[in-house]
Amino acid sequence: MTFKVQDYYFKKAKKENYLARSVYKLEEIDKKFKILKKDNLVLDLGYYPGSWTQYTSKRVGVRGHVVAVDIQDINKSLSNLLNIQVFQKDVFEIRDIKDLNLATKVDVLLSDMAPNTTGIKSVDQARSLDLVVKIFEIMPTFLKKGGNTVVKIFEGPDAQTFLKSQKHLFQKMEYLRPKSTRSVSKEFFVIGIGLKA
Ligand SMILES: C[S@@+](CC[C@H](N)C(=O)[O-])C[C@H]1O[C@@H](n2cnc3c(N)ncnc32)[C@H](O)[C@@H]1O
Fold this sequence. Notes:
The chain is α/β, with parallel strands linked by helices. The chain is 34% helix and 25% strand. Strands 3-2-1-4-5-7-6 form a seven-stranded mixed beta sheet, with helices on both faces.
């Protein structure tokens, strides 16, 4: 059953010319919570290889814009997308919107970032949480008032405690484990709707 599901999303991504099967996680979240809108300015952290960037580029349209960041080499196969800008950067080096050539804050902040996993549960959970803490730290600098966010996080007791402490930042905070998530994965997504001032 597990393999059938994996095979289904992998093949679907290939057929629909997406660079990764993870696009269907964002698609499900977007359809359910109405995260992205036409003309939005979006920051996509941990974009590589770029399926979320492909999806978002299409959703925001020609007057929208996607700024994609990853520590990996720039993926040249995204160069056909005219409304995106790609940076090779470590998220821990980003402090200000100017670091990403942005003139304003963004409407939506996405993060599918994941650490290099070791297989040691406590280490992987802690590394994932470090990334999430960093995102919430830069959130007020990068995300507009009223903006939305989608952030990947690995399950764990510290993750729950941290997310509860951030709940007040948004009008609504939801959690989702998309249908296309591999059964062995410990990831889920936190969805923040409407950043408060
Ligand atoms: C699961 S992949 C993202 C897949 C992508 N959303 C897609 O749809 O193609 C996670 C990415 O997070 C990136 N990443 C991990 N730590 C990072 C950091 N400190 N700064 C920037 N990117 C990071 C990794 O390099 C990796 O490419």
